Each structure stands twice: as structure tokens, then as C-alpha cells.
Amino acid sequence: MLSGQASGDEAPGPAARAGADPAAEAACGDGSGAGEAGEGDPAERDAADAGTAVFLAEPVRRRAVEIAAVAMPGLAPGRVPARLRRFLKFSPAKRAKLAKGELAAALSADGGFREGLAEVLASTDSPLVAAIASGGEVSPMADAAEVAALAYLLRPEGWRELIATASTAVKEAPEPPPAEAPDEAAAKRAAALEKENAKLRSALTDQRGAAAVLQEELRRARRDLKEAEERAQKTAGDLAAERGRLKHLDAERRSERRRLEAEAASLRSSLERARKAEREHERLTSARLWLLLDTLSGTATGLRRELGLEPAADRPADYVADEYCDDPQERSVEGSRGLDQTDPQRLDHLLALPNPHLIVDGYNVTISAWGETLTLEQQRNRLVQGLGAVAAQTNAEITVVFDGADPIFGAKPSARGVRVLFSAKGQIADDVVVELARVEPEGRPVVVVSSDQEVAMRVRREGAYPVPSPLLVRWLQRS
User: Fold this and answer.
1) In terms of pTM, does the model score above 0.85?
2) Backbone angle region of 291, left / alpha / beta, with phi > 0 → left and psi within -120 to 50 → alpha
3) Range(s) of the domain holding residue 234
């Protein structure tokens, strides 16, 4: 079955049918209208031509409308009457409730619409629909109203007899029992109840008067309470505004305090940097002055003794070394002086000058001498060890500079009396060599070993003596 909703409906009696909606009755009955004259089987057309009408009981009519409401969405939109299309968006139950009149009229007058519903019903797998459509035996347990409604929609052979048979099985609605006649005892009880009601009404009137007084007092109390609440809300709003103003002032005070503290910290930091720069400048100036006086010590011993200057612990090159040495402890103090020889006679002459500083462009020397036979690490170690021997034989300060951009494998080479530096990231050793020569005081002999002509030209501007790398290599081999 499509649904068992109408199984409990009772068929109205003759009086009920007489009071039913005539339009609905006419809509569910088949007359001799033009819509039915040209369609259906021959028996149906004959009955229509004869003017025979089919009257459906109210449960049968309602069940036919419900079944049509369920099956209507299965039709193509063009086969649904225009006045029913707006109901397609509703649920079947709501569609059957709102469009029952239009559905009943369409089932009666529109044969194409009814045949379309019959095709939709026949395509279902309902055993009851299959039995009715094929003219087979209908189960006696089937709902009589549903059997009659399906016979009306499917219209198999002998559908009128099937409707008549099923309609007789639809139960008539029971008539209401007749009203009982009032007796004397009931009249007495009614009179007593009327007296009691009069007393109760009098008491109720008194209670209503008292309630009115109480309600007036309650309204007055509510009015006073509302005024008090309004005053409390206004006070709370003023308090919240004052708190917000105080909070804003406190935030401004804290912000101003932080600004002043930051400004004071910035001033202290600037003062500390200025003091540090002044100390460094003073130390550098003192070191340069001491070295200059030490260079001229052979002819100015009396002046040094008169000024009372003591030898400086730091050298100007140490300030450059600090920038290329991660650990200040690695900077040697005792072994920071070294000698570098180029031309045996020229280097001997230059290194014989008072307090010379020998600066070596490391890879410029090692690659030209041992670049084809030794690795970079072996070249660095060999050069530094050779310069250590030079430092042991002379009184020269020796600094060797390597490019720091190249990968460094193994430990940093070291030798007593030799300062080893690596250029910083993004900087080449040539710039470090020139900077070492620039910071030395005028008058101190500075010897720079490099075959790079640009380096030689730059250090010559700073007052240094450039020496080509092969001369230092021959000087080391001679030693």
C-alpha cells in the first residue's frame, strides 16, 4: 500500500453525505463532462454518455485525494494542471490539506492528469496496486477506503463495481446518543449550585476590590523601584565613566613613565658608548704614541725618561684583530710580534729598522709558493710556522691575514709571536691588510708582503713598504 492513513476513517451516513460539500461531491464523481467523454475504456465511456455519476463516500474521497497528493510529484511538470503546480513544493500531507478541492476537481475533470497518476501508481511495487490494476483478488485485510480510492484512480475493468463493493465496507460514523432529559433532582442541585455561585461571586467581588487596592500599591511600589533602579543605573554609569577616566589617566602616566625611562636608558647607553669610544681612542692614541716613541727610542731615550711614559700593553693591530677574533683570549699578547722577510737583503734591511711591523697577505703568499702541492690548511700551517721562526730571530711584530670566506678545516694555526687573522664575512683579506697599515702611527716602519699591485699601491699611500710574496718565500727557505 502507499499508506495506511485512511484505514481508520468511518464512512458518513446519509445525513453526513447530505451535509457534505457539494463542490467536493461533484468533483469526485464522474459525470458526462467533456473531459471524460473521449477517454477511458468503452464501459466507462458508455456510463459517462448515459450520465451515470459516481458518488464517493467522504473517507473514499479523502483517501483518493491523499493518494493523488503522494503520487503527483512523480508526474512531469507539463502533465500537472497549472493550478496545482504551486503545491508541488509542499509535503504530501500539506499538499493534500491545502489543495484537496483542486485535486478533487482535477481528478474528476482532467482525464490526462488522472491517467498520469495511474501510471505513477502502477510503477510502484505495491501488491494492492498490482492486484487492483490487474483485476485480481484483493486481500480482505485491505483498507476498504483505500481499495475504493485506488480503483477510482486506476480504473481497471469493472472499477465501478469494485468502488461500490469497497464503499459498502466503509464503516458508517456512529450517531451521537440522544441528550438525556433533565430530572427534578438535577433542577434542585442546579438551584443549590446557583445560590452557592451567588455567594462565591459576592466573595469574589470583595476579593477583587482588595486585589485592586493591592495592585495599586504594587504599581506604586514598582514605580518607586523603577525610579530607584534608574538612579542606581545613572550612578553606576557615572562611576564607570569616572573609573574609565582614571584608568585612562593611569595608562597615560605609565606610558609617559616608560617613555622617560626609555629615553633615560638611551641617554645612558649613548653616554656609555661615548665614554667607551673615548677610552678606546685614548688607548689607541697612547699605543700609537708609545710605539712612535719606542721607534725613536735610540735617539729619544732622554725624552721618554723625562715624560715618564710606560710601554703600552696593547698594539694598534690588536684593535683590528678584535674584529676578526671571536674569542678575545685567542689573541696572543706575548706572541703578537712576528717577522716576514722578502728579498734577503731588502728584508734584512727593513726588519733591522727599530720596532717594525710585518703584515702578510696569507693566501697571496701560500698559493704562489705551495698552491699546487699542499691543501689550504697545510699552506696556512706551513706559513705560520715559518713566520714563527722569523719572530724568534727578530724583534718585529708579525700579523698574517687569511680570507675568512673560504672553508676553514682543522684548528686555527698558531705560532709564538705571530698574530693570525681571518677576514669577516663579506670582506677580503686585502682590506684587512690595508686597515692594519692605516692604523699604525706615522714614522713606524710597516712592511706589507703581497704580490697584489692594488694592495701594494694602497699600503704605499699609508706609508708602508710593499714587498712581493716570492721574496718572503725565499727568505723563509734561506732561514
Assistant:
1) no
2) alpha
3) 187-276
